[in-house]
Automatic annotation (TrEMBL):
Top-level taxonomic group: Bacteria
Protein name per Swiss-Prot or TrEMBL: GIY-YIG domain-containing protein
Domain annotation GIY-YIG: ranges: 2-78
Family note: Belongs to the UPF0213 family.
Xref: PANTHER family: UPF0213 PROTEIN YHBQ
């Protein structure tokens, strides 16, 4: 059975890169050596693997990757640190019109 990995790299400029692969070791080597000059990470080396999550279903991995790419930097940093309570707090709606924030 093939495994899929969603991963987060921290770049030299402190930005994050999120990707998906079925061979994490190979992909990290490709990023680190500058295999693809057009890749986001090419000019942002050196890189550090900050997070990885394994999936058995490619569709679940793709869904998770897209979800992470939509997250704020703060949520990504909380994930890297394993601070799931912080992720929950950062995920709560802060709009004044949200039902939790309306004064009764």
């Amino acid at each position: 059975m093939l495994s899929y990995y969603v991963y987060i790299l921290k770049c030299a400029d402190n930005s994050y890169y999120i990707g998906i692969t079925n061979d994490l070791d190979r992909r990290i080597i490709e990023h680190s050596t500058g295999f693809n000059r057009n890749c986001y990470t090419f000019k942002r080396r050196p890189l550090k693997l900050e997070f990885q999550q394994e999936f058995n279903d490619v569709l679940e991995a793709i869904y998770f990757e897209k979800k992470l790419k939509g997250w704020t930097r703060a949520k990504k940093e909380a994930l890297v640190k394993g601070d799931f309570d912080r992720i929950k707090i950062l995920s709560e709606c802060k709009n004044e019109t949200h039902h939790k924030n309306i004064s009764k």
